[in-house]
Amino acid sequence: MKQHYQRAAAALLISLLAIGTAAAYTLENFTFDDPARTAEFRTLIGELRCLVCQNESLAGSQAGVAQDLRKEVYRMMQEGKSRDEIVAFLVARYGDFVLYEPPLKPATYILWFGPFLFVGIGGWLLWRTVQRDKATPEPELTAAEQARLQQLLTKAGD
Amino acid sequence: MSKTSRALIPLSIFIALAALLFYGLQLNPREVPSPLVNQPAPALTLASLKNPQQMLTAERLRGKVSLVNVWASWCPSCRQEHAELMRIARENNDVQVIGLNWKDTRPEALEMLQQFGDPYAEIFFDPDNRAGIDWGVYGAPETFIVDAQGIIRHKRIGPINREVWQTEMLPIIEQCRGQ
Known about the structure:
A: 68% helix; elongated; B: Glutaredoxin; 5 helices
């Protein structure tokens, strides 16, 4: 029993160490005197896409280009550049694709408003169908059907 | 609207959607359009690969249509396109092939040229990705077509082969020649 605990503790320690190094690996050397600036830096590189591994942010990617761009973002922040200036710098070179959140402009209207449009169309179709359903009267039963209905109802009552 | 044509609406929506998604599958997600196309070439102040003492600037791109080819010795696709670059340089006297040796080391880059030949009129040496960031480079090989006035007219992402040259690049170079 004691052995089990020891093993579990060792595994926990190893996984904690692994997490520690993984985080330190990408963010080492990138420290600011002001903790708020550090937080701003981490948020910013998390919002930028690495163009080499397109499903990763600059913060998470180990690609050489991502490392270079992290350094570049860090350098610009050290120079006191604002978030918007840094984003504009990268967009001018790599295009809107570096942003995970596409900017609102005519080319992206369909992306931003398309879902609302489709929900609107769906809602309109639903409303129309319901209205039409209300407008059509229930069909009258024939005498034979009435008799059969009565029979079934009384039978169920037994 | 008749009943049959109404019944066909969902089917036609499905076919249109399938066609759109199928078209999407054919696109290469690695080909990100560059905002630099139709813009003046960014700064390019670097040492020459072959003459470390010589400093080169973007002025070197003026006066002739240039192919600015981003390459490195560690990049397999660059080797793959090398023979085609050699042919382009040989057969097009009015086009200069300019190298941007990217994130590489001088000895390894020179060794590759010794082994496979040198198609480049001049090579800018950028081991630290300084000009690379300004040019929006995110992988090798990439090739920019820059006209004689120093305006970027096209960016090719990925290796060049005969077909890419004929169908994608040559028409743009013809336009640059006509200017």
